[in-house]
Amino acid sequence: MSSADTICLFDVDGTLTKPRQKITQHVADFLNELKKKVVVGLVGGSDITKIAEQMAGSIDEVTARYMYVFSENGLVAHKNGSLLHRGSIAEYMGEEKLQQFINYTLKRLSEISLPCKRGTFIEFRSGLINVSPIGRSCSQAERDQFFAYDKEHGIRETLVKEFKEKFSDAGLYFSIGGQISIDVFPEGWDKRYCLRYLKEDGFKNIHFFGDRTSPGGNDHEIFADPSTVGHTVTSPADTIDQVTKLFL
């Protein structure tokens, strides 16, 4: 296995960091050591601002620190600090279909009662729409509370089922991600989208590490793709343990 044609591609939230928290210095130092052995890349559903925040740097610093940084599943792609590509879900869907989905979603969210609700229930990104029943402006404690409540009551699972029925002809995919939200994007615009750049650059060994690799999770498609070697992790500490056994 050559280091030149091998890349370790990491999900961010839950894999390199605790949910929506910043990377620890221990994990950051570990990635710097790993870069001496293989190429290191990041892929997340969040926008580049949130990924940079979690990776404890500015956008310029983080995109320069790792050879590849794929935000919004790779619809916004950076290589060696430069922007490679930016996709647009608005152009893909068109304004009429986009508003139909947003209006339906806001109506459904207004009908759901939760232990608490905050703000930013729909976040519009370049390559996807992020839907959060509790609202993305919730605190970490409120986020944890919703996650536990959702496990018991299946709030997001129910919404995904309804979205699939209501928008079955829209060419959209609905993926439960992180603790509080659902990612909505065109079919094929999941994390596999980023693989096109790695294949073009000649990588033969693509190791992907993610925490939500089960069907319906936002790491499943890239984890199960035949061109990757998928690894399921449970925490940043587990990520370090698995990578160490493989490469260090």
UniProtKB/TrEMBL annotation:
GO cellular component: cytosol
EC number(s) stated in the UniProt entry for this protein: 5.4.2.8
Gene3D superfamilies: 3.30.1240.20, HAD superfamily/HAD-like
Active site residues per record: 11, 13
Pathway: Nucleotide-sugar biosynthesis; GDP-alpha-D-mannose biosynthesis; alpha-D-mannose 1-phosphate from D-fructose 6-phosphate: step 2/2
Binding site for Mg(2+): 11, 13, 211, 223, 225, 228
Binding, alpha-D-mannose 1-phosphate: 20, 125, 136, 143, 181, 183
Keywords on record: Cytoplasm, Isomerase, Magnesium, Metal-binding
Gene Ontology BP terms: GDP-mannose biosynthetic process; mannose metabolic process; protein N-linked glycosylation
Principal subcellular localization: cytoplasm
A matching Pfam family: PMM
Keyword Methyltransferase listed: no
Essential cofactor(s): Mg(2+)
Annotated compartments: Cytoplasm
Reactions accelerated catalytically: alpha-D-mannose 1-phosphate = D-mannose 6-phosphate
GO molecular function: metal ion binding; phosphomannomutase activity
Subunit structure: Homodimer.
PANTHER family xrefs: PHOSPHOMANNOMUTASE (PTHR10466:SF0)
Function per UniProt: Involved in the synthesis of the GDP-mannose and dolichol-phosphate-mannose required for a number of critical mannosyl transfer reactions.
Record-stated family: Belongs to the eukaryotic PMM family.
Protein name per the record: Phosphomannomutase
